[in-house]
Amino acid sequence: MALLNQEQIKGIIPHRDPFLLIDEVLELEPGKRVVAQKTLKPDEFWFKGHFPQEPVQPGVLTIEMLAQAGAVCILSLPEYKGRVAYFAGIDKAKFKRKILPGETIRLELEVVKVRGPVGVGKAVATVDGKKAVSAELTFAIGPAEGEGA
């Protein structure tokens, strides 16, 4: 059962269709860890042009899904309410298996370091318990909307 649905997720991160890429949050310890998921519908816009003869989930979009889950985790802290988390780095990304239309991706991220407005999360995406993607994601917390840089 979902802890947060898409409407609740929209209250935390600024992403919207067609680029809100997580369906629900299953577990959340604000500022520490998150588990979210995305079920890939066969009509997702990217499948039409990404290897159309053999549709496969783009690895970069799986990284983005992990980052959005991580953004929910860090921006759930009261001191970051209304702010934005930006990519500051992607390290040690590994792609272990293809992810196909119809599959459900489990997106897990653990925040391992935060120093000021910058942090690092260890992220893993799995399908049916098998690792598909892993990476270390560095994020930077930006100002709230309207505050400027």
From TrEMBL:
<dbReference type="GO" id="GO:0016020">
    <property type="term" value="C:membrane"/>
</dbReference>
<keyword id="KW-0456">Lyase</keyword>
<dbReference type="GO" id="GO:0005737">
    <property type="term" value="C:cytoplasm"/>
</dbReference>
<protein>
    <recommendedName>
        <fullName>3-hydroxyacyl-[acyl-carrier-protein] dehydratase</fullName>
        <ecNumber>4.2.1.59</ecNumber>
    </recommendedName>
</protein>
<comment type="similarity">
    <text>Belongs to the thioester dehydratase family. FabZ subfamily.</text>
</comment>
<keyword id="KW-0444">Lipid biosynthesis</keyword>
<keyword id="KW-0443">Lipid metabolism</keyword>
<dbReference type="InterPro" id="IPR013114">
    <property type="entry name" value="FabA_FabZ"/>
</dbReference>
<dbReference type="GO" id="GO:0009245">
    <property type="term" value="P:lipid A biosynthetic process"/>
</dbReference>
<dbReference type="InterPro" id="IPR029069">
    <property type="entry name" value="HotDog_dom_sf"/>
</dbReference>
<keyword id="KW-0963">Cytoplasm</keyword>
<dbReference type="GO" id="GO:0019171">
    <property type="term" value="F:(3R)-hydroxyacyl-[acyl-carrier-protein] dehydratase activity"/>
</dbReference>
<dbReference type="Pfam" id="PF07977">
    <property type="entry name" value="FabA"/>
</dbReference>
<keyword id="KW-0441">Lipid A biosynthesis</keyword>
<comment type="function">
    <text>Involved in unsaturated fatty acids biosynthesis. Catalyzes the dehydration of short chain beta-hydroxyacyl-ACPs and long chain saturated and unsaturated beta-hydroxyacyl-ACPs.</text>
</comment>
